[in-house]
Here is the input.
Amino acid sequence: MQDVLIPTAALHDWIERLFSAAGSEATEARLTADHLVGANLAGHDSHGAGMVPRYVSSLLNGELQLNRSVEVVSDTGSILLLDGQRGIGQSIAFQAMEIAIERTRAHGVSVLALRNSHHIGRVGHWAEQAAAAGFVSVHFVNAVSGQPIVSPYGGIDARFNTNPFTVAIPREDNEPILLDFATSAIAQGKVRVAYNKKAKVPPDALIDAEGRPTDDPAVMFEPPLGSLIPFAAHKGFALSMVCELLGAALTGGETSQPANFAKRYGVWNNMLALLFDPARLGTGAAFENEARSFMDYVQSARKSAVGEILMPGDAERHYRRERAERVPIDAGTIAELDNAAAAIARARDVDVGALSKLALD
Ligand code: NAD
Here is the structure.
């Protein structure tokens, strides 16, 4: 199925209007559109506009809450525990990061524990918020939804979610280095996009209900359900365990186990983030020189069949340049987005119109 091209500004405006119609205050609607369109711009369609139908269904089923502020549960200055109050992650994570950034400015370092947020989407967005303030950040995130979708290394049955791990390193006069990925072989949203496009996923990412490897995304949507597997075998699984334990168990959030599967329409995230000000190490100029020469050395290696050696964060920059004016969205996702707008129109009596009407010829 062919992708539909939507002008980037029009997509942002449509999402902002949709969330305003749903009941978000202006800042929340804008932050939500900034984040979702930002994910499309970064090339992560799995966490872009295509999440809107899921958010709308979570909202209309009484799970996702709008216009929530983070609640400070405990605060020792540089160590903070915040509760997201089941609010929309695009606003909740922004608020939490703003507080952590302010504390990092004051103390040089901060530990942010955030629990009970609705889906915080592309975690790199929050790491970029810290990097824009000049701070290194490391994020351990768990996710809980109606059912687990990733099997542990050595197991067949799904037991947890795609738990992302993220690191941003700011650089003077340069874009940050950004490591930001799911600990599953591929993100669930990418399986959804492939399913909507009727495409295959790469091999070694999925197993069917009997534990056999498959490239068919349908095993994640049509019974009997299969599961994603962790990236890099035991290493991805071990990192995912750390995300679950630091991101959720330690923050007082919910780990992925049956007692916590009752809220089944939303996706819930808990996050532990460590921020620090690298300037306080006093190694700024040396870091820039050493980092630059090391990256040059790495990129001087002879090229394999992959064809190029990228730095973490380069892929997102490449997509941002390519998509500045228009974003491709697959036709299946566009249909789901039109349905989501219709659902909001019925529930709130404000019709923002179909996104498909904004498609370029
Ligand atoms: P991915 O597999 O596309 O990997 C992205 C990372 O790899 C980026 O850091 C990118 O710069 C880097 N990268 C890409 N190509 C590279 C190359 N050739 N060389 C070096 N580095 C390269 O990402 P993903 O696993 O599909 O995750 C996508 C997004 O989903 C992330 O933003 C993540 O935060 C988000 N996510 C969120 C949740 C949640 O619950 N909120 C869960 C899972 C994933």
